[in-house]
Design brief:
Layout (H helix, E strand, L loop, with lengths): L8 H8 L4 E4 L6 H8 L6 E8 L5 E7 L3 E2 L1 H8 L7 E2 L2 H6 L17 E5 L7 E5 L5 E6 H6 L5 E3 L2 E2 L7
Parallel strand pairs: 2-7, 3-6, 6-9
Antiparallel strand pairs: 1-8, 2-3, 2-5, 4-10, 7-8
Amino acid sequence: MNAPAPIGPPEVLAALGVSFRLRAHPDVVSPVEVCAALGVPLERTVKTLAFVTSEDRLLLAALPGHARLRYSALARAAGIRRADLSPADAGRLARAGMQPGGVCPVSADRAAVVVFDESVSSLGRVHCGSGRPDSSIEIEAAELLAAVPAARTAPIADLPAIEPA
């Protein structure tokens, strides 16, 4: 007998009573492709990078779509060594109710460690992965963070410098 498939991020959010909008788009993987499909600026997205620790624990790093991840800072925030971070594969994501190209910081995997960059809370309304590459979740950043009460917040992103107008 097969175990039931894990529920995805939209179902987790709905069960929590969080207000969000599911936005369908063609299958896309990168934040730039999502922005083009939805007509939103990259600065209004939250990308989530998925890793697995040496204990097979899922580690989700959520940061602004235009930022670069600081791997050492993520490892420190998660309380592990940088060398213990490995990219999560499709099988590990599936166990958390997600697919590549749709990773979300909200997961049915209760053991997952989630680290938000400290800048995410001030982003306002954002788009993030829905668990699938063919849709995104539109949500207030503050509600996204609140949906993951055990999440940690740390300076894990390098944000691009703002050029003068």
